Amino acid sequence: MPKVISVHSYRGGTGKSNFTANLATSIAQTGKRVGVVDTDVPSPGVHNILGLEPEQMDKTLNNYLWGESTIQEASYDVSQNVGLTEEGKIFLIPSSVKADDIARILKDGYDVKLLNDGFRSLVKELQLDYLFIDTHPGLSKETFLSIAISHILLLIVRPDKQDYQGTAVTVDVARQLKVRNMLIAVNKAHSKLNFDALKQKIEETYHVPVAGIFPLSEDVVQLASEGVFCQKHPEHFISQEFKKVARIIMN
């Protein structure tokens, strides 16, 4: 049965889209078929990391939500963009980066039930093994839907008081929605922190397993979202941490 994974953070700037792209690629490298849906319609960005340029987006998630296309017509095979040459595949459903489209979706909204229908259709038509949902930060009805239908909710947290408080709210909501599995990934952790103590503190606070801790990395910053880090630097310790989290998700 295909797994649906929502990647979420309470606040922006946590590196959520970067996580989504790297985890999707890490899993696709094992020969799996992976879909990525960018539901962060007010501020889409995962397309940059997966190498899909705006001028290549003839159809987007917006067009599907407005009844102008099927969701399959808004899907793009970006496998070659991220260097996949074997059986594994990555399909991206991007959100529009056009200012008018973003303004329209913010003004008029959309039928949230269409998202669920679209996810089911994607999994079936593209024969996906995994579907990643890159969510909009914070909590909204769209986020609630993504969380509710997920097999795994991966929360991205920085070691920051505001992140900790927001994550507590998200964990509580997820439990009310009866999410089956939750994981936490700590990002942008300062190298002077005691990672073992940090992991223990977070797990004791939220009663959620910490799947990985990612230190602040100049190498990641230098890439500047121009490509998937784990594909460009496969031996880097950050890439190895992504692969570890990917194995946890797959198991």
Can you offer a commentary on this structure?
The structure is a single chain. With 251 residues, the chain is of the alpha/beta class. It has a single domain (3-250), classed as P-loop containing nucleotide triphosphate hydrolases (Rossmann fold, 3-Layer(aba) Sandwich), CATH 3.40.50.300. 43% of the residues lie in helices and 18% in strands. It contains eleven helices and eight strands. The chain has helices at 16-28, 46-49, 61-65, 99-108, 112-125, 141-149, 161-176, 195-206, 218-223, 229-232, 237-250, and strands spanning 3-8, 33-38, 76-77, 89-93, 130-134, 152-157, 181-189, 210-215. It has an eight-stranded mixed β-sheet with strand order 3-4-2-5-1-6-7-8, with helices on both faces. The longest helix has 16 residues, at 161-176. It is globular, with a radius of gyration of 17 Å. The protein starts with a strand and ends with a helix. GO terms for molecular function: ATP binding. It comes from Aphanothece hegewaldii CCALA 016. This is CDP-3, 6-dideoxy-D-glycero-L-glycero-4-hexulose-4-reductase. Keywords: ATP-binding, Nucleotide-binding.
